[in-house]
């Protein structure tokens, strides 16, 4: 048995350190998390994500020894921030421009999926604008041949950002429109094809099959889900459903300039494992921002 009197100076120091330590108990974590949990739910983070975070914090912190006087509440909040960052930070960060330029055979094909009203068409125009500013040639495929007015709407946006749209008539095969857009890009040496797909208000069998066919025909390099941050938990369900039909590689969350604190970003990343690439922060074509995990965590905690 070592005591304070015997032992080397190193051992003495270790002994005193031990005396000064307390263990973090499950109760400490539970209490601190109860409060933080309310903040997360108020920020629209889905319950299943909140529960996963709670488990993670318990795992990381319960039983850990800290120095007497350590602010446990602060420690737990820091642990929570870290766990949130972990969910949001993709294993491999996607640098879109880099990715597009590194593709050997042009064009790079991006298919956009999402429900009506989520901001899909506006987002495509914003992204087209951003890509052009980065020196890339872009064409848009008007593959929503279902919803009345969809083709004119995408044409109007495209006109304003100076990008050509490839279209057929309403009722035409969306995959055929996308295919033509790719041929157009190949012939003109354009870098990127953005495919606007149909939204509907529910993901039924038809829409699933349509998405699958577009994916089969165009072999997109990237499938981006566009979700409305104001849609709360239902946007997480949408992301899951689309992800079952076609694998989603990235997410753009719109309307973050509005009230929502954007917890959906966290829930979606957690639910489908895809990174948030950009967020929409307004109705203008410049209102698209690369997603920054740290900025987001600050926003969640208000
Ligand atoms: P779509 O049906 O998914 O193609 O949706 P739209 O692109 O037509 O967008 C629906 C509405 O949301 C339009 O009034 C857009 O201006 C608006 N919108 C899209 N993105 C944003 C955003 O980031 N912020 C705000 N405030 N409005 C947006």
Give the low-confidence spans: none
Report the strand count.
Answer: 10
Order of helices and strands: HEHHEHHEHEHEHEHEHEHEEH
> Biggest sheet: strands side by side, in what order?
5-4-6-3-7-8-9-10
Principal-axes shape call: elongated
Q: Classify the helix fraction into a percent range.
A: 40-55%
Q: Structural class from helices and strands? A: alpha/beta
Question: Which labels suit this protein?
Answer:
single chain, 302 residues, alpha/beta, 8-stranded mixed beta sheet, two-stranded antiparallel ribbon, 12 helices, elongated, binds guanosine-5'-diphosphate
Describe this structure as you would to a colleague:
- The chain contains 12 helices and 10 strands.
- The radius of gyration is 24 Å and the shape is elongated.
- An 8-stranded mixed β-sheet has the order 5-4-6-3-7-8-9-10, sandwiched between helices. The chain has a two-stranded antiparallel ribbon with strand order 1-2.
- The mean pLDDT is 91.
- With 302 residues, it is of the alpha/beta class.
- Helix 7 links the parallel strand 4 and strand 5.
- Helices cover 50% and strands 16% of the residues.
- The site of guanosine-5'-diphosphate has 18 residues, from helix 6.
